[in-house]
Amino acid sequence: MELTNLKKKTDKAIADPVARNEARRYSLPTRLAFLPDKTIGELWYFRLLTWIYYYIFICFHDFEIIGMDKIDPKQSCLFISRHSTHNAEITGIIVCSYYETGRVIRSLIHRQLIPFFPVLRLLGCVPGQRDTAISLLNSGFWVAVIPGGGEEAMVGHENAYEVRWPEKRKGFVHVATEAQAPIVPTFLANQEEMRWNPILFFWNLLGLGRLYSSILKLNIPIFTPILNTIGEIVWFTMTWIQIPIPAKLTLYIGDPIPYDISKDSIEDIVERSRNSLQALINRHQPQGKCYSNAIKQRIASLKKYWISKISK
């Protein structure tokens, strides 16, 4: 009875009839993602993370968004991006983009991760499943996905700004085309330099990341899937060891990727999406991974800020 009342209460809070009808297809935890942006933004957990992330991103990293004018604020869209090696930017972007745009980005999270961190539901996050993502897009929400997943995050610091999607990762295109939503590439400049992890640093310095990737490429039956799962668990555990670096962070929004579902194959759209994202990264991170450059940009933004204050 209590669960039924909670579902009714949640349904009542979803004012939009289209979103309400889509939400009713799912369990109570998933229905939370269909709540209005403002309702999610006022939840206690979202407000708590505002104090932790918003002010750190704005004050410490001088976070800004460039290119949001390319997006129709009233239209749904599917944002795609590259995976970092540390995960530290995901929550910050969700929180900060809400206060910059008034929209809460619904993030598609690894299905095995959500059960361990159910509180992510209060940020509008949902397990990465096609039907849920399509329903959210059909309801007019902004949805974000990192097609490369954990595999992309573990390719090593030397490949930190290369788009490396496993061949099987095509689901995001199926989602976008079925919902007829635009695919929009995004890139957070200096996302790798914003955190320093001593364990991952020495892991890459010793070339163990390259060795790990080489073993996975052998595609040994039974052994490879087990090794990949163990690797993801170890990597995710190690990402919690982070030292913040005052790197300047800028979220760049690229041009929507054109596609015609009557003419283009899924593979063509995937490749076009990959190339568009890589081009966006190359344009705004031509130097690759470089801590000194990221810090210099932050110092320059500080100088600009104080000069504008003094001149007033």
TrEMBL record:
Keyword Transmembrane helix appears in the UniProt entry: yes
Pfam families attached to this UniProt entry: DAGAT
Localization of this protein: Endoplasmic reticulum membrane
Protein's name in the database: Acyltransferase
The entry's keywords: Acyltransferase, Endoplasmic reticulum, Membrane, Transferase, Transmembrane, Transmembrane helix
Family annotation (InterPro entries): DAGAT (IPR007130)
Protein family (similarity comment): Belongs to the diacylglycerol acyltransferase family.
Gene Ontology molecular function terms on file: O-acyltransferase activity
Enzyme class: transferase
Transmembrane segments: 44-63
Natural source organism: Adineta steineri
